Prior knowledge:
The chain is an alpha+beta fold and 478 residues long. The protein has helices at 5-25, 33-43, 45-65, 116-182, 188-223, 244-254, 256-276, 319-385, 391-426, 429-433, 445-448, 457-460, 465-472, and strands at residues 71-81, 98-112, 282-295, 298-312.
Amino acid sequence: MILSKQARKKTKTSILAFALGLCVSHSASSLTLEDAILFVLETNPEIKAAEANKQAIEFELDQARSFFAPRVELESRAEGSINDGTRTNDLTSSDDAIFGYEVTGRVTQRLYDGKATRSEVERQAYRIDAAAYRVLERAEFLSLEAIRVYSDVLRTQRVTQLARENLTYHRDILAQIRSGFDNGILGIGDLQQAEERLFLAEDTLLQFELNEMDTRALFLETVGVTPDGLNAVPSPAARLPATVEETLATAWRRNPTILFFQSDVGAAEALSRTANANKAPTLDLEAVTRYGDDMRGFEGEVRDASVGLVLRYEFQGNRKRGEREEQVRRVGEQRARLLTQTRLVEREVRQSWANLQSALRRADILERQATLSRELLESYTQEFDVGNRSLLDVLNTQNALFQADVNLRNARALEVFLKYRLLAAAGILLPSLGIEPPEDSNAYAASAEGAPGVSSEPVKLRDDARGFSDWRKSVKSE
Length: 478
């Protein structure tokens, strides 16, 4: 449905109020994950561009519908003319130049065009739906991107804090080693080892801090606000489909990319029907009236009217047949593109599922490794204090613990993100979060115009090469 100017103005006002309120308030309070996603949906320019495109196509549908209405033409002209010919002995012909005017009105109502107008309306309806699914696709993708950068900011903050704690540990160790060296208990080698590990810890912290700043900048670019006061990312585990097959079945029904290309197929089929209409003549009811004076070299008043049926048919070589055959091939092209996207979505679902299962197992392993490294460091430290372990053993164990903690934080963050990615691949990310998609993501036009449905054969026949080939070639010019 096309929004009225007042409704659009009210919507824009509410969006600006939301954005301003969030900008003012989020610095003084927490910025939840839902807040970040809502801000992306309301302000991201990619979504706004997709919405504007959909609204523009709605006006193209209005233009297509207008061909059902009568066409009214008004023409007025004023001219000077002279009739010096000898072809007529009309008493009203003028021997001298005369100046006159004429007003013509013409009303034309198309009665028959081989359903060309109807097919064009259906094509524009499918284009509206395709544009709506593009809005939904952008909304789901950018919402997932908002989740990723939100999670990345928290992850980099945590690993940077681990790097600071690691640096503090090495400073404490260096202080103890220097004291032992000054007292003659430890040698220069131990002191140099401690200093070298301190430099490494400082360099690691610098790298982690730079990575955190880069992540914050990316958050600002994606979401539009600074990442201050973030909360922990909730796990969507309870909302995930139970199996990969269930996820695939959901994706085939709801993934916006698949739905977009299905609508593209519908638009191509409608355009093919429009081309088929060129085999039929057009039939118009025309009413013409003229009123004028002293026109075309004849003196006197012009006042006449006529009503009639006009049948038109155009011949021009093989142009019409070529147009029909071209559009048949365009349908085949769009159906092939739909199959390509169906395969890509299936790959995305399967990869996301496999990555999630791997991440779950890896996080469990890293959890146990970090626990063991912490216990080992404590044991080695006690043994070092009584001279049964070298300093190198202790420092290596601390480094292993630090890496295990960092890897564990990264793995836990990846595990949660992959769950959201799986929801996005299935096309149910926003519904799973209880967030309404943008209003312009509503695909209503094809059903509202009663357009023929688009077959979902690429899904049904994806394991049947011959069946798919027959489906792809099933459209023929009539």
